[in-house]
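Quick one - inputs below.
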Amino acid sequence: MPSAGGHRPNAGPSDRHHEILDAALELFATIGYSATTMAQIGDRLGIRGPSLYKHIASKQELLVEIVTGMMTELLRRQRAALILGGDVRDRLQRITAVHVQYHAEQRYEAFVGHREIDSLEEPNRTRILDLRREYESRFRELVQEGRELNLFTTSSDRWSSYAILDMGIGVSAWYNPAGSVSPEELAATYARLALRMLGAERNEPEG
Amino acid sequence: MPSAGGHRPNAGPSDRHHEILDAALELFATIGYSATTMAQIGDRLGIRGPSLYKHIASKQELLVEIVTGMMTELLRRQRAALILGGDVRDRLQRITAVHVQYHAEQRYEAFVGHREIDSLEEPNRTRILDLRREYESRFRELVQEGRELNLFTTSSDRWSSYAILDMGIGVSAWYNPAGSVSPEELAATYARLALRMLGAERNEPEG
DNA sequence: GAGGATGGCTAACGATCGTTAGCCGAACGA
DNA sequence: TCGTTCGGCTAACGATCGTTAGCCATCCTC
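Output:
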């Protein structure tokens, strides 16, 4: 048997666990959570469905790990972007870039994280929705702040922040990592589009 | 029995069929296609799951009707917007407004139409994806046309047209018809945001 | 009033799927 | 070398669900 099994003296969360998570992620993103079977996940590792239960507790647990990891990372990066300070335009540009870059880099996590929220059982669903609300509110707050300082000329904080969020989320549905544009480039481009949308371009009424 | 049954002398596609379609639509949008059971759809009409089959062929047929109807209507409205002519900015503004207005007015159809495409069986899936490609290409063509005429100052046709499309699609996920903003208002606002994003604002370098 | 169609119903089939139970070979520690 | 643990496997359970079969009351037409 080509198994690498046997006694594993010491390790973190096992490699097998991560392999299963990766396989599940790709399947959840490609064909959806409830359409994915444990047998299919097992296939990706060359093992049977029931064998997965030596490493994980349930299918639902896989989804929870994926979605929680996604929201946690998104919030972490957003905080890191905000902590750098700068004026409102700088900060908004940075959290937009971070938003877009994540949705390109980790397009599967992002896609599943948005699409399968309703597949989460309570209380996880509510918990994740709360995190998402927190994440989204940062955009709205920043747009509002910029508008109060007359740096943005937009009619509604709410709608324009939703527009920025949604165009970033959309990236996770079409981004192709084998294409010619890097996540960083795309993030920079989109961040510029966002500022333009808010009427906040810097090099504008100068000529 | 409170049934309205009996012989129905003459009618188009029966009322019951539409009622079922409506119930299915709301459930597909709320909890997803594969999570929706025929019994749940029946519940909405006060009848049992198997009774639905007196009016419809299958659950899959319901999805096909919803998604086909959505793409057909979207293309119809887009064509109507384009046929009015005008310069590139006019046309782009109009198809963006139409895009957003539909995603607000028919948010359930739109949401299901985007989310459940992979739940369609072939050949319907491919057919719908082709229609969607056609719909999306109109945006890209218009952005390209405007850029060649130096009316838009955007770096990439592809990305900015995706951004416009995605921010419209996003509307179907959060729009609340009981809120204070009408689909028309939202469409007008978003169309303005889109043109701004492209650097195509009219009343700009005039002061 | 007879005949037929409509549109409900219950029962049940057949398939799928998440999960559990229980078995066993391989590898490691003492 | 012996015992333990790891991590596979097959078999099977239990639940769910789409769908079909077959029954029957109601109503319309003639």
